[in-house]
Amino acid sequence: MIEPPVSAPPGVPPPREPAARAGLPVSARTGRFLVLLGVFVCAACGLVYELELVALGSYLIGDSVTQASVVLSVMVFAMGVGSLAAKRLSCRPAAGFGMVEAVLALVGGLSAMALYAGFVWGGEARALLVAFSLAIGVLIGAEVPLLMTLIQRIRRQDAGGAVADLFAADYVGALVGGLAFPFLLLPLFGQLTGALLTGAVNAVAGGALVLGLFRGDLSRRSRRLLVLANVTVLALLAAAAVLVDDFERAARRAVYGPDVRVAMQTDVQEVVLTGPPTGPLDLFLDGRLRVSGRDEHRYHEALVQPAMTRAHRRVLVLGGGDGLALREVLRHPGVRRVDVVELDAAVVDLARRDPALVALNRDAFADPRVRVVHADAFQWLRTAPGPVYDVVVSDLPDPGITASTKLYSQEFFGLAGRLLAPEGRFVVHAGSASTRPRAFWTVDASVRAAGLATVPYSAGGRLAGFAAGPDRGAAGPHQPRDWGFVLAGHTKPSLALDPGRRYRSLSEPALRAGARAVQRTRVAVGPSTLVHPRF
């Protein structure tokens, strides 16, 4: 039991207790430093667990804003529950803190693998995301009351001073953990191994603090239990780390099928290329199907060709790192220069060297008329000169993905319109008009709000939806069967095709039918802006 602190005269600091009286193997000053160091490490690990859940939840479920809100709100609530629950452990703070850290290291370390396994083989990630957020939040919340008792055990001080010390170490640790996750753990180790490594650090820090500094407060039985618990946790995390590559391969086969040819994590996203040696390929970016060899020609012809019917000496392609929109542009001999702005250099490199993808894009990046810029499209448009382009093609991820919201904003379309020649044309992929009409018409409204006249249309014949990868939940009756596009210009463009050119799947009657079809889905929506996103 902790005795009440002895009051000191005003202005006189309370006397420091010698280490011998405190029962510590080190001086009180060193002991206080070690406790704050433990707080620092545990706080860093806790924030890494939190960011892991947000990142993996966004990847598997989508809509990063929603997943971040769910994880943060549930964890903050659970931390309050954990703080209250820690009262039951206040009579044995050292043993309680040691067990809390061992359980937190195990749960947090294995959370990413469990969440991914639940999604791949159980088809469910939302319930697990909430469950792990609750569990980790409760355990993190239990840390502070126990650490408060332990630091008072070392040196008597007023409660306000102890809380300030603990929170300072906690917040600095959170800063380090928050920076280590995107800049160290994720690029070097990936999500799964990064979580396992964080759990191991958490277990070592918590176990060393209790078994080294406060071993005098533990009974022989408690010491044995804590040693056994920490050894078991470290053994389980080590075994998972040894098996993580096999786990990833098995999960990848379960998600993408047996014909995974390329799988890599770039600085920007996960890139997976699948397909048998002689069959059509599928390209997934961050788990979302971006290209299918079965029907990509329908999409890329419908995206590019209506914009190429007038002057097209200089063309700008935003995105399109697979080279397929570029292939359609280069079919026109009148093209003199094409600038491709693609953020992920690894995707362009893959499109240049993978034999199947090179065959599909007809080695478009080898054409001397092509210039590639690796940059964020929004930032590049802000500094690009203009007006210089006859055609601007926006071949970017679907507007429903949170990370793409700024690329479908009124501000983005205004920047793109600034680069258009007076008679230039701008075309943007706007998602499926039949299954997501609000998103489609929000794109149209945003382009019009940027001062451009629009002609919306769609192209049918979509064969490959989201039947694999993290978007596979969209398969079934709500699987998109069409692509929606918005063609725009400073004056209203006509929806037509070059009469002297042959197309695999496109015709003017089909375009006109697509324009009529999207009008039947029209809904009244406003534009999406950076400060008021509507997707």
Q: What would a concise description of this structure say?
A:
This protein is an alpha/beta fold and 535 residues long. It is built from 15 helices and eleven strands.
Helix content: 40-55%
Shape-level CATH architecture of the largest domain: Up-down Bundle
Q: Give the strand tally.
A: 11
- The average pLDDT value, as a whole number, equals 89
Strand order of the largest sheet: 7-6-5-8-9-11-10
Order of helices and strands: HHHHHHHEEEEHEHEHHEHEHEHEEH
Largest β sheet strand count, sense and barrel closure: 7 strands, mixed
CATH superfamily of the largest domain: MFS general substrate transporter like domains
Residue runs with pLDDT of under 50 for 5 or more positions: 1-9, 11-21, 466-477
What fraction of the residues are assigned to beta strands by DSSP? 5-15%
State the domain count: 2
Shape: elongated
Q: Counting H and I runs of at least 4 residues, what is the number of helices?
A: 15
CATH topology title of the largest domain: Growth Hormone, Chain: A
Helix-strand makeup class: alpha/beta
How far is the N terminus from the C terminus?
Answer: 57 Å
Oligomer: single chain
* CATH class bucket of the largest domain: Mainly Alpha
Indicate the radius of gyration in whole angstroms.
29 Å
Catalytic activity: S-adenosyl 3-(methylsulfanyl)propylamine + putrescine = S-methyl-5'-thioadenosine + spermidine + H(+)
Transmembrane segments: 33-61, 67-86, 98-121, 127-151, 163-186, 192-213, 225-244
Protein name: Polyamine aminopropyltransferase
Active site: 395 (proton acceptor)
